[in-house]
Amino acid sequence: MFPGFGKSSTIYICTHNMWSRTKASQSRIPPEYSLVRTSREFTDENAPAGLLRAHKLAADVWGRLRVLSGRVVFALEASPFDTVSVSAGDYVDIPPEVFHRVELLGDARFVIEFFRDQTLSDANSELSVEERE
Questions:
Q1: Which of 122, 118, 1, 110 is nearest to 58 (CA)?
Q2: pLDDT tens digits, residue range 93-114?
Q3: What is the pLDDT of the chain when averaged over all its residues?
Q4: N or C: which end of the chain has fewer CB within 10 A?
């Protein structure tokens, strides 16, 4: 679990360059983390089934769900459970080791960006994602 995770934590969503909070749990990507990879563009036609089921990022990896068009629901699968709708131009940061999933609403297009602390890890190592069994 990442530092600060708990019932009083919040999800931060960037909407049109302004930060807002929801009830659930996550912080912003730490400043020492750098972008190491961006996924291909996903739509309702090509999104991997694993993204639609509960899964989590590795201990040293943060993610960012960036919506390019349409809307995507980000669902936090850890207590406290919460969902938030993320619209085109907005994003939500995803902490390590927290189960989550996405739901596509219509013709949504989105990418996932992956971040690592470059001072602690090898940028070329595998970015692992684990699905809930």
A1: 1
A2: 998 988 999 999 889 999 999 9
A3: 77
A4: C
Give the start-end residues of each E strand in 2-128: 12-15, 18-21, 33-38, 42-43, 55-57, 61-76, 82-87, 91-94, 100-117
Q: Distance between CA 133 and CA 25 in Å, rounded?
A: 22
User: Facing residues of 21 across strands?
Assistant: 12
- 3-state DSSP assignment of residue 133: coil
Could you read off the pLDDT of 59-81 as tens digits, one per residue? 889 999 999 999 999 998 876 67
Residues 45-56 as b or e (16 or more Cβ within 10 Å = b)? eebeeebeebbb
Place of tokens 């989590």: 56
